[in-house]
Structures are given as structure tokens and as C-alpha cells.
């Protein structure tokens, strides 16, 4: 498997999960050790990247999966993923206030986000992404992979 140049949806989006997790951990560490400027810029990169990732899933990946696999967003895993995205965005809003200094950082939203992303990412990587690789045609898969890497 070529991890330098991932071609499958599973490789590319799982790589993006790892990249975002690394940014999230670095932002959390910087905030804890008092590097406010560094924490703010790492968090901004994480926040922008995660919102982009969610947008690519909801605007490109899930519609293609619904069309090709017959899954419907009203039921089952796609609907669950979309509901979790809204919960993730709610936690991001709370974290924006913590990282800007507007709200005290008590670690609760970051802990919840970390746990939520771990479970969410695992479900996508084990179920939805492999299904996308099996059902979506090569050209459309490549355009989704290209989009996730355009940030
Ligand atoms: Fe997702
Ligand atoms: Fe994802």
C-alpha cells in the first residue's frame, strides 16, 4: 500500500483522521503548557481541517454512497454519522471559545471531542469507507480523494 500517495477512500480519509488527531493533540498540549499563540494557530488549523473533512463527507462521499450502495441517510450508518457531525461541530464551537480565551479551558469539551472522534472515525474506517471503495466508481473515488487533500 502506498501511504505517500493514497488512492483509496479508506487510505485517504483515514490518513486525514490521523492528521487531524495529531493537530488536535498538539493544540491541546500547547494550551496546557501555556503556549497560547501556538495553541490558537494549531487549533485553527484543526478546526478548519475537520470542518473541511466533514463537508467532503456530507457533500460528496455520503451522496455517492447513497446512490451506489442503496444506503439511505434517514436510516442506519449514514444518518448516525451526520448526527455525530452536528455533535462534533457543537463541541468545536465550545472549543473556539476556550482557545480564544473567551471561556475557561477546563478540558471537558476537548475530552468529549477526543472520545467522540475516536469512535466516529473507527466506524467510518471499518464500515463506510470500505463500502465506498467497493461501490463508488474509480473516477468519482479519485475526485473525492483529491478533494480531501485540497485544504
Ligand atoms: Fe465523519
Ligand atoms: Fe471521517
Descriptive account of the structure:
The chain is mainly α and 151 residues long. It has 5 helices and no strands. Helix 1 runs parallel beside helix 5 and helix 3 packs antiparallel against helix 4. The mean pLDDT is 93. One fe (ii) ion (FE2) binds next to helix 2, helix 3 and helix 4.
Small molecules (ligands, ions, cofactors) in the structure? fe (ii) ion
Mean pLDDT: 93
* CATH topology (level 3) name: Four Helix Bundle (Hemerythrin (Met), subunit A)
Gyration radius over CA: 16 Å
Distance between the termini: 23 Å
- Please provide the ordered H/E string of secondary-structure elements: HHHHH
What structural class should be given to the helix and strand makeup? mainly alpha
Shape: elongated
Count of domain modules: 1
Biggest sheet features:
none
**Uncertain parts:** none
Q: How many DSSP E strands?
A: 0
Tell me the name of the CATH class.
Mainly Alpha
Tally of separate helices:
5
Helix content: over 70%
Strand content: under 5%
CATH architecture: Up-down Bundle
Spell out the blueprint of helices and strands.
Elements lengths: L8 H24 L3 H34 L6 H24 L8 H28 L2 H12 L2
Characteristics:
binds fe (ii) ion, mainly alpha, 5 helices, 151 residues, Four Helix Bundle (Hemerythrin (Met), subunit A)
What's the quick description here?
With 151 residues, the chain is mainly alpha-helical. It is built from 5 helices and no strands.
